[in-house]
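ok so for the tutorial part 2 we go from a plain amino acid sequence to predicted structure tokens. step 1 is just haveing the sequence, like this:
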Amino acid sequence: MIAIDRWVQYYQELLTENRPEYEGNKNISPTQMDGEIVEVIEERVRKAVRELKKGKSCGPEGVYAEMLNHGTDKLIKMLTWVINRCLNGEAPQQWKVAYISSTHKNEAKRLF
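step 2 — the prediction. this is what the tokens look like for a chain of 112 residues:
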């Protein structure tokens, strides 16, 4: 078994942006650096929703891909509005939370 502090260290290193073009600009989003407003159109959102993989687990809010896929045009309009706000720097704080589950592939092979 791997100690929890080793997992923390592993994921901190894995999820840290180390590319040179981002060094020194860690608190600035790409849209803020360019100063331009990004806008996604409804058709692009509709296409992305159709291409979501089915049968996957949901996020912390409990929204499954199948729920979005069966939504109406009104849902697509609202998703487009939300996506555009988030892309331009207005993402809710709770959306910045992620859950990570580590699985040991070698252990899984032994179980089957």
